[in-house]
From TrEMBL:
<keyword id="KW-0479">Metal-binding</keyword>
<feature type="binding site">
    <location>
        <position position="338"/>
    </location>
    <ligand>
        <name>substrate</name>
    </ligand>
</feature>
<comment type="pathway">
    <text>Cofactor biosynthesis; thiamine diphosphate biosynthesis; thiamine diphosphate from thiamine phosphate: step 1/1.</text>
</comment>
<feature type="binding site">
    <location>
        <position position="82"/>
    </location>
    <ligand>
        <name>Mg(2+) 4</name>
    </ligand>
</feature>
<keyword id="KW-0460">Magnesium</keyword>
<feature type="binding site">
    <location>
        <position position="52"/>
    </location>
    <ligand>
        <name>Mg(2+) 1</name>
    </ligand>
</feature>
<feature type="binding site">
    <location>
        <position position="60"/>
    </location>
    <ligand>
        <name>substrate</name>
    </ligand>
</feature>
<dbReference type="InterPro" id="IPR016188">
    <property type="entry name" value="PurM-like_N"/>
</dbReference>
<protein>
    <recommendedName>
        <fullName>Thiamine-monophosphate kinase</fullName>
        <ecNumber>2.7.4.16</ecNumber>
    </recommendedName>
</protein>
<feature type="binding site">
    <location>
        <position position="37"/>
    </location>
    <ligand>
        <name>Mg(2+) 4</name>
    </ligand>
</feature>
<feature type="domain" description="PurM-like N-terminal">
    <location>
        <begin position="35"/>
        <end position="148"/>
    </location>
</feature>
<feature type="binding site">
    <location>
        <position position="233"/>
    </location>
    <ligand>
        <name>Mg(2+) 3</name>
    </ligand>
</feature>
<feature type="binding site">
    <location>
        <position position="235"/>
    </location>
    <ligand>
        <name>ATP</name>
    </ligand>
</feature>
<keyword id="KW-0067">ATP-binding</keyword>
<feature type="binding site">
    <location>
        <position position="130"/>
    </location>
    <ligand>
        <name>Mg(2+) 1</name>
    </ligand>
</feature>
<comment type="function">
    <text>Catalyzes the ATP-dependent phosphorylation of thiamine-monophosphate (TMP) to form thiamine-pyrophosphate (TPP), the active form of vitamin B1.</text>
</comment>
<keyword id="KW-0784">Thiamine biosynthesis</keyword>
Length: 341
């Protein structure tokens, strides 16, 4: 009988490893290939960064509560975030969409309004793409291109023992926002007359519907001449993503529970859902904040930024990956973030 392996048994990253195990690098200009937030090529002497992300209706967004303008903005922002994660400056995007005939021209225009707003925000050009039809809802694929200033791109694999682990912004808010929107959707479907109760939750709703890539932080790090030893963006959740840095760098880590930046709105929402703010921050995903490590000598500069929190430090691989609670209890960090399959 023909062998049949379930994709779920491998997971997203196992599947990628499996499919690319025989992929060869033929061009001397390929500086960094599959496995990081973006690839890096030497394009006639300039280091160019390239990344692609797909957004699929029903998997990445629900049009019942996602305004199309926000969706257009988010499709660009999440790709720009991957470029930022290499310490690069985004310059261009291509956009491919598969549209169901449920959508009107006006609806697609609204989506493009968001795309153009993001291009303006991040100072990038939309330079091409593809448009086709879909029988199964809306598919969006963006390819983003960026350039490395100062020949110093940052990968996931350079973290060293005793480096400090930093993240930008706050964590868990997008997850809390998603839970709120899903709850209000369920209530609305059961009682169509009821108005959604989203008042005073603008931060968490904003984080899920209209995230921002942290280009501001990349620029700040460049101004301060801080080169992180490793970096990625947090899309699947801190617990999953810090493991990527530790595995790629062959290290362990300690994360301090009490140092995780969690917005009061996130904590409040978590409580309503019987969760802890910490579990939203660790396992929620879609934060699109930057997660990076710096050498201790950069600490004095890092503390100058209100946008950055130091949340832990890198240890030797044998020490494993742990969360340290305020009470001094050590819990093994398990990747419990978003799983694509
Ligand atoms: N279901 C809906 C309808 N909307 C959502 N936003 C989610 C689930 C949650 N969700 C979708 S994708 C994702 C999460 C938490 C994680 C990031 O997606 P991925 O495709 O892995 O992004 P990448 O790492 O490629 O940037």
């Amino acid at each position: 009988m023909e062998q049949r392996t379930e994709i779920a048994s491998m997971g997203e990253f196992g599947l990628i490893d499996h499919l690319t195990r025989n992929n060869e690098t033929r061009q001397a200009s390929t500086l960094l290939s599959i496995g990081d937030d973006a690839a890096v090529i030497d394009h006639f002497g300039r280091q160019t960064v390239i990344s692609t992300d797909i957004l699929v209706e029903g998997v990445h967004f629900d049009l019942m509560y996602t305004p199309l303008k926000h969706l257009g903005y988010k499709a660009v922002a999440v790709n720009v975030s991957d470029i930022c994660a290499m310490m690069a400056t985004p310059t261009h995007i291509t956009l491919s969409i598969a549209l169901s005939n449920r959508m009107s021209v006006e609806a697609v225009e609204e989506f493009y309004e968001g795309v153009y707003a993001a291009c303006e925000q991040y100072n990038i050009d939309l330079i091409g793409g593809d448009t086709t039809s879909s029988q199964k809802g809306l598919f969006i694929s963006v390819t983003a291109i960026g350039e490395i200033r100062n020949d110093q791109f940052v990968t996931r694999s350079g973290a060293k023992v005793n480096d400090l682990i930093c993240c930008t912004g706050d964590l868990g808010a997008a997850y809390a926002g998603l839970q709120l929107l899903e709850r209000e959707k369920r209530i609305f479907l059961e009682n169509p007359g009821v108005q959604p109760d989203l008042q005073q939750k603008s931060h968490i709703i904003g984080k899920i519907l209209k995230p921002e890539a942290r280009l501001d932080v990349v620029e700040w790090l460049q101004e301060q001449q801080i080169v992180p030893t490793s970096m990625m963006d947090i899309s699947d959740g801190l617990s999953s993503d810090i493991l990527h840095i530790c595995r790629a760098s062959e290290t362990g880590c300690i994360i301090y529970d009490e140092k995780l930046p969690i917005d009061p709105e996130t904590k409040e929402m978590a409580q309503e859902f019987g969760l802890s703010g910490t579990s939203c921050a660790l396992n929620g995903g879609e934060d699109y904040e930057l997660l990076f490590t710096i050498s201790q000598s950069d600490y004095d500069k890092i503390v100058l930024s209100e946008k950055i929190s130091v949340i832990g430090y890198i240890t030797a691989a044998e020490e494993g990956m742990h969360l340290l609670t305020r009470q001094g209890n050590k819990h093994k960090l398990v990747a419990q973030g978003w799983q694509a399959f």
